[in-house]
Design goal:
The protein has 10 helices and 15 strands. By secondary structure, it is α/β, with parallel strands linked by helices. It folds into 2 domains: 44-168, NAD(P)-binding Rossmann-like Domain (Rossmann fold, 3-Layer(aba) Sandwich); 174-325 and 350-374, Dihydrodipicolinate Reductase, domain 2, CATH 3.30.360. The structure holds NADPH dihydro-nicotinamide-adenine-dinucleotide phosphate (NDP). NADPH dihydro-nicotinamide-adenine-dinucleotide phosphate binds at residues 50-55, 76-78, 81, 117-120, 140-141, 167, 169, 209, 223.
C-alpha cells in the first residue's frame, strides 16, 4: 500500500467512526482494527537554486503538497525576487544565498538538499558545488550539456557520499508508472512492439537562453524531446542499440539560428522494440503510445504538469483509465528526501541522466551524418 492509499484509508476510517458516533457510540469490539501509517518524521530541508519560471510556478508551490520535504533556503542572482519569495514562503533571510555566496551553504545546517533549477549549462557547476558543500542534489533535466559533465557530477556525488538525482518527474507520477507496467507486462495484450513518443511546444522569445546553444546545449531535443527519449527507455526498460534521426528548422526563423527546431529519431531496442520519437520547438505534441499485438495504451497529454489522460484500446473497445493525481514536483522531492532518510538510491540517479545524454549525442550525430549510429 502506498502513502496516499494509506492516507485514504485513514480518512475513510475517521469519517465512518465519526458518522457512527453521531448515530450511536460504537462498542470497542466493533471498532475495526486499522493499521494507521506511521507519523511522518521531521521533513528534510531544501534550498531551491535559480528562481525562474519552473521554480516560482511549480517547485516552490509544490512544498505545500510534500510530506518529507520543506523549503528552508533560496539561491538567486536577483535579491529583490529572492526576498519577496522568502517572505511568501516563510524562508528566513539568513538562508538566502546568491551565486557568489553559494559555497557557504556548507556552513548552513538548516539545508539538507539543493534543487538545481538553473539553465542547463549551469547544472554541472552548481550541482558539484552543492555536493562539495555536503548537500544532496536534485538536478533538473537535461542533467548537463554533455556526457563528460554528467560523469563529473556522478564522480562528485561518489566522492562526497551525497545523493544525486535527476528530476525526471514523470517517473514519480501514476499515469506514467501505469503505462510502464502495461508496456513491460506481456500478459497485457502481448509484448510491446512499437513505441511512439512525441513532445513539443511552440517556443516564444528568440532572446531566451533555451535558444542559445552555449546555455541550452542544443534545441528542442535537449529541452522537451528528452521526455520522448526517456519515455521510450523507461517504457521498454532497455537501452537502445541503434539510432537514426533527421532534423530541420524553419528557414530564416531567428529563433532557430543556433539550435534545432524539429528532430525526429528512431531507436532500436535489444528485444526488437522500435521507438519512433519526435521533438519540436515549433508545434505542440504531448503523447506516449505503446502498441502490442492485441491492443495499445497511450497517454495524451503524457507530460503536462496536470490533466494527464490514459486510454487503452483492444479492438473496437477503447477505455479511459484514470489514475491517482499527484503533484509531480512534490512526488519527486519526497522521493529524494526518503532516499536520504532511508539510505537508499533514487530511481533516477545521475547515471540515468548520463544514459540519456549519451543517446542524445548519438541522435545528433545520426541527424547530422544521415547514418545509423550504433550505441555500445
Ligand atoms: P528560466 O529561464 O525561467 O529560469 C532560470 C533561472 O535561472 C533564472 O530566473 C535565474 O534565476 C537563474 N539564472 C542564473 N543565471 C542565469 C542566466 N545567465 N540566464 C538565465 N537565467 C539565469 O528557466 P526555467 O525555470 O524554465 O528552467 C530552469 C531549468 O528547469 C532548466 O534546466 C529546464 O530544462 C528545467 N525545466 C524542467 C521542467 C520540468 O518539467 N521538469 C520544466 C521547465 C524547465 P535568478 O534570477 O533567481 O538567479
Amino acid at each position: 500500500m502506498n502513502d496516499d492509499d494509506m492516507q485514504f484509508s485513514r480518512r475513510s476510517f475517521l469519517w465512518s467512526a465519526g458518522g457512527a458516533m453521531v448515530a450511536a457510540p460504537l462498542a470497542a469490539a466493533q471498532v475495526p482494527h486499522i493499521d494507521l501509517p506511521p507519523l511522518p518524521g521531521e521533513p528534510l530541508r531544501w534550498a531551491v537554486v535559480g528562481l525562474g519560471r519552473l521554480a516560482v510556478f511549480q517547485i516552490l508551490p509544490a512544498f505545500a503538497a510534500s510530506r518529507a520535504s520543506r523549503l528552508t533556503g533560496l539561491v538567486s542572482g536577483s535579491p529583490d525576487k529572492a526576498r519577496h519569495l522568502a517572505q511568501l514562503y516563510g524562508v528566513d533571510a539568513r538562508h538566502i544565498y546568491d551565486y557568489d555566496s553559494y559555497d557557504s551553504l556548507a556552513e548552513d545546517p538548516e539545508i539538507d538538499l539543493v534543487y538545481v533549477a538553473l539553465p542547463n549549462s549551469m547544472h554541472a557547476e552548481y550541482t558539484i558545488r552543492a555536493l562539495r558543500a555536503g548537500k544532496h542534489v536534485l538536478c533538473e533535466k537535461p542533467m548537463a550539456n554533455s556526457a563528460p559533465e554528467c560523469e563529473e557530477m556522478i564522480a562528485a556525488a561518489r566522492e562526497t557520499g551525497r545523493k544525486l538525482m535527476i528530476a525526471y518527474r514523470l517517473r514519480y507520477e501514476p499515469f506514467n508508472v501505469e503505462l510502464i507496467r502495461i508496456a513491460r507486462d506481456p500478459a497485457e495484450m502481448g509484448p510491446t512492439r512499437i513505441i511512439e513518443a512525441s513532445a513539443g511546444f511552440s517556443i516564444g522569445d528568440p532572446a531566451q537562453w533555451r535558444l542559445r546553444k552555449a546555455m541550452a546545449g542544443g534545441g528542442s531535443l535537449m529541452d522537451i524531446g528528452i521526455y520522448a527519449l526517456n519515455a521510450s527507455r523507461y517504457l521498454t526498460g532497455e537501452e537502445p542499440t541503434h539510432v537514426t534521426a533527421m532534423m530541420d528548422s524553419t528557414s530564416g526563423d531567428p529563433r532557430f539560428a543556433e539550435v534545432e527546431e524539429n528532430i525526429t529519431f528512431q531507436l532500436r531496442y535489444p528485444s526488437g522494440i522500435l521507438a519512433n520519437c519526435a521533438s519540436s520547438y515549433g508545434v505542440g505534441m504531448n503523447r506516449f503510445r505503446v502498441s502490442k499485438p492485441e491492443g495499445w495504451a497511450e497517454l495524451e497529454p503524457a507530460l503536462s504538469y496536470r490533466g494527464l489522460r490514459m486510454r487503452v484500446g483492444r479492438g473496437e473497445v477503447v477505455e479511459q483509465r484514470p489514475q491517482r493525481v499527484v503533484d509531480h514536483f512534490a512526488a519527486e522531492m519526497d522521493h529524494l528526501s526518503r532516499c536520504v532518510l532511508d539510505g537508499t538510491e533514487p530511481l533516477t540517479p545521475g547515471e540515468e541522466g548520463l544514459r540519456d545524454m549519451r543517446v542524445i549525442a548519438a541522435i545528433y550525430e545520426a541527424a547530422r551524418s544521415g547514418e545509423t549510429v550504433a550505441l555500445s
